[in-house]
Amino acid sequence: MKPVVVKMNQTSGKVRPPAKKPAGSPARKVRPAAGVAPADLSFPVIAMAASVGGLEALSVILGGLPAGFPAAIAIVMHLSPDHKSILAEILSRRTALMVRQAHTGDVLSPSCVFVAPPNRHLSVGPGGRLKLSSAEAKKVHYARPSAEPLFASVAAIYGRSAVAVVLTGGDGDGSFGVRIIKDHGGKVIAQDRPTSLDFSMPQTSIQTGEVDFILPLEEIAPKLVDLVRPGRRSAAATRHPRNSKSSSAVRVLPK
């Protein structure tokens, strides 16, 4: 599976979606950089993105996951760059999982949650190692950190073992990344309108047609537990990436 690069317009800073491969194109394995161990694909990786109302949403989801949750979690939330973030500390008091602020060189592992710091994009590289951008990196959807680099990199490394979760927030962050997740065979969850403080982020992802589940906030954690069950994952791995989405899984949005 070829790593995907999120391209930005040099003048506007906006993300351009990657060109789609023709249907039936064979998947290609990701080759790790020289001297870097390949990522451990024995566990899934969940990439979450949130903005306005994100603290409550993340608290509910992480609080609903059991100790020993068999997946790694990476979180991007739009935060003020002018203040030190205590998001990881707050979330750690609301979940049985280990939560810490991400640093370059950290390695994803099950039952661990890594939170992007303010003013840094977060991405995942070979070996499951995290990487933070500089504070001067271009903003994406007016945000730094943005969901797009995280979703794209998780898709490229973890393929069918990747799950994207788009939560309450403004603008359209994550809308290109969910397409990349689906192109690589992963799953996508979006928070529903009634439980979102700002529905813009989930809505733009839903409008791509690539969202598998549109769920109220309190149903997201149980769905994640279901998606990462070993038996469920083994069955999903036998399907072709572009045929893995069931049309019956997506709810019709209320008008």
SS element count, helices: 7
What would you call the shape?
Answer: globular
**Tally of structural domains:** 1
Radius of gyration: 17 Å
Please name the fourth-level CATH homologous superfamily: Methylesterase CheB, C-terminal domain
Q: Whole-number average pLDDT?
A: 81
CATH top level is: Alpha Beta
Q: Report, as a whole number of angstroms, the end-to-end distance.
A: 38 Å
Beta-strand level of the residues, as a percent range?
A: 15-25%
Secondary structure: number of strands: 11
Secondary-structure arrangement, i.e. CATH architecture: 3-Layer(aba) Sandwich
Residues in helices, as a percent range? 10-25%
Largest sheet: 7 strands, parallel
> What would you call the structural class?
alpha/beta
- Which residues sit in consecutive blocks of at least 5 with pLDDT less than 50? 1-5, 7-16, 21-35, 237-255
Main sheet: strand order: 5-6-4-3-9-10-11
The quaternary organization reads as: single chain
CATH fold group: Rossmann fold
